[in-house]
Amino acid sequence: MYNFNINIKKTDRKKTVSFQVERGLVKVLVPRHLDKIKLNKIIKSKSKWIKNKLSKVDEILPSRKKDYVSGEDFMYLGKHYKLKIVKGKKYNIKLSDKYLTITIKSHTKDDKIKRILKNWYFESADKYLKETTSELSLKHDLDFKSVKVRNYRSRWGSCSSMGSIFYNWKIIMAPKKIIRYVVLHELAHTKIHNHSPKFWSYLKSIYEDIEYPKTWLIKHKNILEI
Ligand SMILES: [Zn+2]
Q: Which residue in 32, 56, 102, 137 is a FRET match for 25, CA 20 to 30 A apart?
């Protein structure tokens, strides 16, 4: 009956209906005793808002399986590079204007190429994110304890209560503007450790448009892969 994916959950903990749109799914929390007709009316009145939210992310880009051959597209800091495989005596990776050139020995298997690439991305992410975090921490007077890069399945970063920040290495493929959002998001957690309205309004005060990177990350998460 609705032309979007909707997940209705009844609860005793709410007195009003609340909506959440996340990753293409509409979640609705409904007070247990609200009748159906009323609920439908409320959903209908919200449908414009829901569709608007959905339209921003409805085009989640599909993941692309890599074969690790010359000509394939790889991203770094938001730019696209063509993979160029050359044979040599020593493993090496170099980024130039248009190419991500990887030197491999003859008979190197795909999974080894993938491993070399991943190490390179990991190290580049480590360096870039440490620098960016220090820079933005100074600028906004936000103290952190340490920065480490990790392999996360479905998050871009985290911040412990002690101020240790962790980032997903894959974020190094995103544009600088998006990375700056992720860094400021984690740095803001050194001050406010939750996702309360206070947190979001603080983040809005230090980053120009928080909806843009949030939507961008959902839409592109499948292609920030190697
Ligand atoms: Zn957070």
A: 32
